[in-house]
Design a protein that fits this description.
Order of helices and strands: HEEEEHHEEEEEEEEEEEEEEEEHHH
Largest sheet: 16 strands, antiparallel
Number of strands: 20
Shape: flat
Strand order of the largest sheet: 5-6-7-8-9-10-11-12-13-14-15-16-17-18-19-20
Number of helices: 6
Helix content: under 10%
Distance between the termini: 49 Å
Strand content: 35-45%
Number of domains: 1
Structural class: mainly beta
Oligomer: single chain
């Protein structure tokens, strides 16, 4: 049974030539061909944006695209990455890494591995030096080994300005074992002369799903930063999961604060690889005067039949609340039932002739992530001796919950 659930030999995932379904070692790997489907009369499935006819839906679309107008209004220039301070990460041996004293950018999602430029050294080193501007640096690299053929190759770097007002740390790693598990990752933190502090981590993982036996690639990024001059900070957690049959999950949680203003946002997408899709968004904010507002919506579709529903609300400092709820039922025959109401007494309940549009497949899926994960897929595990078999404990290691913005930023400042 163990052999049926896991890899008796190291597995590999590679981008195959275009086709409907490719098989390798008995596992369905890639479903590449995307189709624009006409599901029924008046029902289309496409990647275009959702189109609605009622005024309530149009207003919802406007609200959905609106972001809080308060992320770091005054100190934003310090919280934007400074490209001129970034240097090539593929530095020659005995050349010190340059200053990396810029916080991460907000709302940039999960970077591809090529954007990090991870370049691990092939031997163990421990070196340090001083740059022309007086800043100091230290770099070391090595390997760690564990049970089940586990190996972790890593490089750690850190630096400090000549006067000690700014400092940074950065770690790169790659992990592998005999089950076929592979991981590529980065963690970085620092603070600059203005007192801004930050922490960021990025991971890319290949493993076999315990239940489906399919290869899965997962990517994640966590980022947070805190202003050194006022009560401002933000945190983001992004994740993406893909398997070889088209199952896809994506989502993000975001939080920000500027003095007495704060905002939150959560969203998610789920595609089952067989045409079923679920999407949702929930965001809310509070101003320094105590005004609160929020907007949320959800859609579910399969084979041209599904629903959408949502709510927009507003609450004044005196706790006066206004809200509007709305919904749509799509029957798959060109008929759509639209309904809704608000606290001001408006309401509607109609059936209209309208085409149904939704995304049945992610715009970025399994074939795309395989093509963008060349470095991850090329990680070579240590050789397994004859007669030794891996302990089939599937899945990536359980991650510890992320630290709060305040605690993690404080730790970054003390480093």
């Amino acid at each position: 049974m163990a052999a049926a659930r896991g890899f008796t030999t190291p597995f590999s995932v590679r981008l195959l030539k275009r086709g409907d379904v490719a098989r390798e070692n008995g596992v369905e790997l890639v479903v590449l061909r995307k189709k624009r489907r006409v599901l029924a009369a008046g029902v289309k499935c496409s990647c275009s944006e959702i189109r609605g006819a009622s005024k309530s839906v149009e207003k919802f679309e406007q609200n959905k695209s609106r972001s809080p107008a308060m992320p770091f209004a005054s100190p934003q220039s310090r919280f934007v990455s400074k490209p001129e301070k970034f240097f090539s990460r593929c530095t020659p041996r005995n050349t010190g890494p340059q200053s990396r004293d810029s916080p991460p950018k907000r709302d940039t999602g999960i970077a591809n591995e090529k954007d990090w430029g991870i370049s691990l050294l092939n031997d163990n080193v421990s070196e340090s030096g001083t740059n022309e501007d007086g800043s100091t640096w230290y770099r070391e690299s090595g390997e760690d080994f564990g049970d089940n053929g586990f190996r972790c190759r890593w490089t750690r770097m850190r630096g400090q300005s000549f006067d000690g007002t700014s400092e940074w740390k950065e770690t790169w790693w790659e992990k592998s074992d005999w089950t076929g598990y592979k991981e590529l990752g980065v963690e970085k933190s620092g603070r600059n002369a203005e007192g801004d502090s930050w922490w960021e981590t990025w991971r890319e993982v290949l493993h076999q799903d315990e239940w489906s036996n399919l290869a899965r690639i997962e990517r994640s990024a966590q980022k947070q930063a805190k202003s050194g001059t006022e009560n401002a900070g933000w945190y983001e957690n992004w994740w993406e999961k893909y398997d070889a049959k088209g199952w896809t999950e994506k989502g993000a949680h975001k939080y920000g604060r500027l003095n007495e203003q704060s905002w939150w946002e959560k969203w998610g997408e789920h595609y089952d690889g067989r045409g079923s899709v679920l999407k949702w968004t929930d965001k809310w904010a509070e101003t320094e005067l105590g005004t609160k507002w929020g907007d949320k919506w959800e859609e579910k579709f399969f084979a041209g039949i599904g629903s959408r529903q949502g709510e927009t609300w507003h609450e004044s400092p005196s706790n006066e609340r206004w809200s509007r709820t709305w919904g749509e039922e799509h029957f798959g025959n060109g008929k759509v039932h639209k309904y809704g109401k608000s606290t001001t007494g408006e309401s509607w309940d109609i059936v209209v002739d309208e085409e149904t549009y939704y995304e049945a497949e992610p715009h970025y899926g399994w074939a795309d992530v395989v093509g963008d994960s060349i470095q991850l897929l090329s990680i070579e595990p240590i050789e397994r001796p004859p007669g030794v078999f891996p302990n089939l404990d599937f899945g990536p290691p359980i991650e510890e919950p992320p630290e709060s913005s305040s605690s993690s930023s404080s730790s970054s400042s003390s480093q």
